[in-house]
Inverse folding.
């Protein structure tokens, strides 16, 4: 399992860098990014929708924790994980959002279908993010079985949808800070 104490970033690293760099963007994220004023799109896959809906609950909880106003959240449903990149691209290019969260579950079966869907979904979402410069968060579970998917979509702080919601706020906030740094604005 990833995310152990051995892999967590010590917050003291930011202080240790302050004397070695001029600016840091996103250094305050461990204390929790504030999402007030951010507009977030969430795209959910209907296939394996019982998992997607649990991830959506987690994402909405994470956005609420980060103070994103529910009126600034839009949810769209697509048939499956393979369709997530196109919907994410549409949000990124045709609407006023600060980040797009993509949620779904691709569960390994007896055929190679898993590899094609999971790989193309990930590649497509990465392409949308890089092509548009908008945070596109990969909240798609790729598991060997249903039990693993359910474990990652539990109704607690380990829910991967919650992590995706918080990551969206963190990335949108960091990109804003980078934009201010480029413009020479402090903060």
């Amino acid at each position: 399992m990833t995310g152990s104490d051995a892999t967590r970033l010590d917050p003291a690293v930011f202080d240790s860098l302050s004397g070695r760099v001029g600016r840091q963007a996103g250094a305050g994220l461990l204390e929790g990014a504030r999402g007030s004023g951010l507009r977030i799109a969430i795209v959910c896959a209907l296939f394996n929708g019982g998992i997607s809906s649990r991830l959506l609950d987690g994402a909405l909880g994470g956005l609420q924790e980060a103070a994103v106003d529910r009126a600034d959240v839009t949810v769209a449903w697509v048939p499956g994980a393979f369709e997530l990149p196109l919907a994410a691209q549409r949000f990124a290019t045709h609407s006023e959002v600060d980040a797009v969260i993509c949620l779904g579950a691709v569960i390994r079966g007896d055929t190679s279908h898993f590899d094609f869907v999971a790989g193309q979904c990930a590649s497509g979402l990465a392409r949308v993010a890089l092509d548009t410069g908008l945070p596109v968060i990969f909240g798609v579970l790729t598991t060997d079985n249903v039990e693993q998917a359910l474990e990652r979509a539990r109704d607690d702080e380990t829910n991967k949808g919650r992590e995706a919601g918080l990551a969206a706020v963190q990335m949108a906030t960091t990109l804003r800070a980078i934009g201010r740094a480029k413009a020479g604005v402090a903060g």
Strands lie at 40-45, 73-78, 99-107, 136-143. The mean pLDDT is 91.
